[in-house]
Hints:
This protein is mainly α. The protein is built from 1 helix and no strands.
Amino acid sequence: xxxxxxxxxxxxxxxxxxxxxxxxxxxxxxxxxxxxxxxxxxxxxxxx
Length: 48
């Protein structure tokens, strides 16, 4: 029983780590999109 709980804890930790890593990837992607849109707006304004 104890080894089963220990295994569950390890799997739970791995799943949580994967979810947090995916969240970080999404945050970076969204940040890059905002930067790209911000740059495109400034280029459009500068080019008139």
